[in-house]
Amino acid sequence: MNAAIVVCKGQLFVYGGLFESGSRQYTLSDLYSLDLHKLDVWKTLIANSLNSSEWLGSDSEGDSSDDDEDDDDDDDDDDDDDDDDDDSSEEDSSGMETE
Predict the structure, then answer these.
(1) N or C: less crowded end of the chain, CB within 10 Å?
(2) Known PANTHER family for this protein (predicted)?
């Protein structure tokens, strides 16, 4: 996704983009071209080498325990709201007839 695309003199050029694997996001730096008159072969002008890529983020990036605690508190608040909704739904459903 997010590749750069250019057409110049009958050639389509596609550069880079993004690749996601799990929670990691890789930036690609490869460059390909396609002759729009023939449409038969993609030429690799600059090959991307993910083998030489280096992960610059931390191993625990995105796994913050502080955020999880805040989420738990939010869930508790939602549970309180659900209790109020359950009471009102019981009152509403008591007068309804079923077929």
Answers:
(1) C
(2) KELCH DOMAIN-CONTAINING PROTEIN, KELCH DOMAIN-CONTAINING PROTEIN 4
